[in-house]
Amino acid sequence: MKPKHLKYTKKNGIGTEKDETKAFELYREVAEKGSTSATNNLGNCYENGIGTEKDENKAFELYKEAAEKGNIFALGNLGDCYFYGIGTEKDGTKAFKLYKEAAEKGNTIAINNLGYCYLNGIGTEKDETKAFELYKEAAEKGVIHALINLGNCYQNGIGTEKDETKAFELYKEAAEKGNIFALGNLGNYYFYGIVTEKDEIKAFELYKEAAEKGNTIAINNLGYYYLNGIGTEKDETKAFELYKEAAEKGVIHALRNLGTCYQNGIGTEKDETKAFELYKEAAERDNR
User: Fold this and answer.
1) What rounded mean pLDDT belongs to the chain?
2) Is position 194 within any domain?
3) Domain count for the chain
C-alpha cells in the first residue's frame, strides 16, 4: 500500500463558490509575498492541474522552495515527488530523508509515510517493528490511512503479535470515517466471518459502498457477488460490467475474471479471442 498524503488547498471552495482558477491566482499572489504555505499549495495546483495547466516540474520546484524555507507540508510533498518520480527522478533515499525530517517536525502524514519506508526498506533498512510504531503514532494523531496500515500490521503480525480482533476494530474505525480501503477490508471480515459473524449481506453493502467511492478492488469483488448471488440477486450482466470497469481501472485479477466471462459467455457474448487477450495481458502485468 503506497503512502498517502494530504493536500492543503482551496480547491474545494470552502465558504465560497468553487473556483479553482481564483484559488490558483490567490495562492500565486500570496506566494509571491513570501508565504511558504501558499507556495506549497501553488505546487499542489501545478501537480494536479488545479486552476492551471498541469506541470509536475513546476510543482517540484515550488515544493522544493517551500521545503527549503522549513514548511513541513512541503517537505512531505517533496518527499512524495522523489518517491513517485513527480517532476524529478525517483529516489527512495531522498524520499526517506524528507519524510523523516517532516515527521520529526510534526507532519503526521509523513509519519505514516515513514512507516511505509521502514516496512518496505525504501531508503533505509527494513524494520517492521519501527514501521508498526510509526503507523501507531500516526494513527493516534488522527491519520485515517494509518489506521488501515496499523490494522494490516495486526492482521498479518507485522512488527507486532497477530491480532485479528484489533485489526477488525481498526478497519471498522477507519471505515466509519469514510476510508474506501477500510470499507473493502471490513467487507472481507464479514464475508469470511473473521472475529465477527459471517454476514454476506453486510459484506455486499460494504463492497458496494467502497466501489461507489472509487475502491477498484471492491469493484472487482462486487462483480463476484453479483456473479454468484452473494448478498444480492444473481446478475451475470452486472458482474460482467463490474469486472470490465475494474479491469479498465488496472485491477489485474479483474482482467482474469473478465477473460472468464468472455471465455464462457457470462454476461456477454462468448469471445475466445478476447478472453485470450485478457489472460495474456494479466500474465504480462503479473511479471512486471
Assistant:
1) 93
2) no
3) 3
Q: Please answer whether residues 39 and 190 qualify as being in contact, where contact means their C-beta atoms are separated by less than 8 angstroms.
A: no
Cell numbers for 163, please give them.
491480532
Give residue-wise pLDDT tens across range 240-264. Answer: 999 999 999 999 999 999 999 999 9
CA-wise closest residue to 6 among 141, 100, 109: 109
Which of residues 90, 118, 137 is at a domain's end?
A: 90
Buried b (16+ CB within 10 A) or exposed e, 151-185: bbbbbeebbbeebbebbbebbbbbbeeebbbbbbb
180-199 mean pLDDT = 96
Q: What is the CATH number of the domain that holds 130?
A: 1.25.40.10
- Please report which confidence band the pLDDT of residue 287 belongs to, taking 50, 70 and 90 as the band edges: confident
pLDDT reading at 136 higher than 50: yes
| More confident call, 111 vs 2 | 111
Per the structure, the complete domain to which residue 112 belongs is given by 108-177
